[in-house]
Amino acid sequence: MLIFEQIGPLVEYLNSCREDGRSITLVPTMGGLHDGHLKLIERAKECSDLVVVSVFVNPTQFAENEDFNAYPKTLLKDEKLLESAKVDVMFTPSDNEIYPVGSSQDYDVGEMGKILCGISRPIHFNGVAQVVTALFDIVEPDYAVFGEKDYQQLLIIKSLVERQSIKTTIVSVPTVRELDGLAMSTRNNYLSSKDRAIAPLFYQQLVDTKAAIQNGIDISSATKQAIDALRAVFDVEYVEVLNANNLTQITTSTSEIIIISAVRLGETRLIDNILFRRSYV
Asked: What is the pLDDT of residues 170-187, one digit of tens each?
């Protein structure tokens, strides 16, 4: 595995690979790698000849009161994990490499960035758009792989690629879960042992809400039941049942549905979702 900290040598190497006819897939990460990231890498290997994994804790997607300074930074552990996964290239840029002094970037991510997580984290998706655009400019990947746990982010990135005519195909991977159902996340490391034992109730409630909807309970009632049940354990930020294609309200013609939610358990913010097709009787 080759490791690059600076853009120049990385671009030179990737250009030589392209000249040899090799295709490239990028897996952007913020480090703190786990088995969920390894699933992204597995999918990336299916897409192309060469896999680049970036490890960069992006400051522009964190507000002042968020966990940027506390976010797990485990670079040596991440390097060993990527080495064992036979990743071709690890890219570990500094802040100045991604955001050169004097550079200014601002992206309008549209209405989708103002709902759900965008309400409590108003700068978050703008920051995501900044770093993803920068990484795409540097790596120029044929493909980029993202997880479906961050579903709102996934749709915003797809929209960004389309609006900017970026020649990168976005590939998504279903959420990877622990044996008890909890969606894998670097932030799960924040959970106390007591909270970790409780956390799987989050996903279980989403499963129960899906079953309620499929059993004929109307969406507003199912959503209210989910919020009431979750509030017994969590601080609920939102629970919504929406059109999975664009995160708008469901209509009679909607077939792809997402139950999407964010909660807090202690000091830890958890997000999760379930995707399913509406069945018609």
From this structure: 999 999 999 999 999 999
Q: Please provide the CATH number assigned to the domain covering 186-277.
A: 3.30.1300.10
- Rounded Cα distance between 157 and 178, Å, is 26
How far apart CA 127 and CA 115 sit, in angstroms, is 16
The structure's pTM equals: 0.96
List C-alpha distances in Å: 67 to 102, 194, 267. 25, 21, 10
22-34 pLDDT, tens per residue?
Answer: 999 999 999 999 9
Query: Tokens for 57?
Result: 């804790």
Q: CATH 3.30.1300.10 spans which residues of the chain?
A: 186-277
Q: 2-173 maps to which CATH number?
A: 3.40.50.620
Give the chain's count of helices (H) and strands (E).
10, 9
User: Token match 């000249």: residue?
Assistant: 19
Inter-helix orientation angle 200-214/219-231, to 10°: 160
Say how far apart CA 168 and CA 19 lie, in whole Å.
18
Task: Provide the annotated active-site residues.
Answer: 37
Distance, CA of 146 to CA of 7 (rounded, Å)? 22
Outline which parts of the chain fall under CATH 3.40.50.620. 2-173
